[in-house]
Amino acid sequence: MIIGDSETVSSYKNQWDRFFDKFGYRDKITKIRDFYPDQKSLLIPYQEIANFDNDFASSLKENPAICIRAGE
Question: Which residue windows are coiled coil (predicted)?
Answer without folding.
Answer: none
